[in-house]
Structure formats: structure tokens, C-alpha cells
Amino acid sequence: MAIVNVTDQDFKAEVEGSGTVLVDFWAPWCGPCKMIAPVLEELDKEIGDSVKIAKVNADDNPESVSRFGVMSIPTLILFKDGQPVDKVVGFQSKDALKNLVGRHQ
After folding, report:
1. Pairwise CA distance, residues 74 & 58, whole Å
2. Has residue 1 got a pLDDT over 80?
3. Pairing of strands 52-57, 75-80
4. Angle 6-51-8 from CA coordinates, rounded to 5°
């Protein structure tokens, strides 16, 4: 499964209408966001069949940022059946993200 870019307009359909979704709130100017992008690509290759990975540009989608209380980026929120179940802030290793997802499978 490929990583999907999500906006305020399609957030409900792409995230809340899916099973388990890891959402990356990021911005193009954010250094740690650039560092985590290849980690998310690797993670998608390894567990993309069981978990959807979505990216939300925090600059362009203030409604989603506000709704989920994103204060700094990158913030990664794991959704299960439409509900946020876990949240981490800042750069995370692939193993840390696999553990995060694994706790909720």
C-alpha cells in the first residue's frame, strides 16, 4: 500500500473510514519531518498490508491539526477504527513505530 496524502476535506474518508491508520502530521520546512519520511516509506513496505500510512501537511490543513491537538511536528497519531489510540511527537525510529503499531493490532 502506498502512503497517502490526506487533507482536511478527505480526512474522515481516508482515516476514520479505515482500519488501522498511522497519520504523520508534518510540514515541508520541518527538518525532523524530512528525516522521518524515509522511515515511514520503509515501514510502509514492511507493514503496509496491515496498516495504512497517511501524511497531513500541517500548514495546509489547520482543521485536522486543531482537531487532534497537534502542537509540534512531526506528530504521529495512530487511529484504530476511526479513533485516535496513540500519539508520539518528534522523530521516531522504524522499530519504535513498529512497536507503536504492534501495541494496537
Report:
1. 9
2. no
3. unpaired
4. 15
In this predicted structure, what is the pLDDT of residue 61?
98
Q: How distant, in Å, are the alpha carbons of 17, 19, 30, 59, 69 from that of 34?
A: 27, 26, 7, 15, 21
On whether the CB atoms of residues 11 and 56 are closer than 8 A, the answer is yes
Which residue out of 33, 54, 65, 100 is catalytically annotated? 33
Q: Any catalytic annotation for residue 92? A: no
Q: Using an 8 Å Cβ cutoff, are 23 and 33 in contact? A: no
Q: Which conformational region is residue 87 in: left (phi greater than 0), alpha (psi within -120 to 50 degrees), or beta?
A: beta
84 is catalytic: no
Choose, from 3, 4, 27, 30, the residue flagged as catalytic: 30
C-alpha–C-alpha distance, residues 74 and 68, integer Å: 13
* Whether this model's pTM surpasses 0.85: yes
Flag whether pLDDT at 26 surpasses 90: yes
| CATH number listed for the domain at residues 4-102 | 3.40.30.10
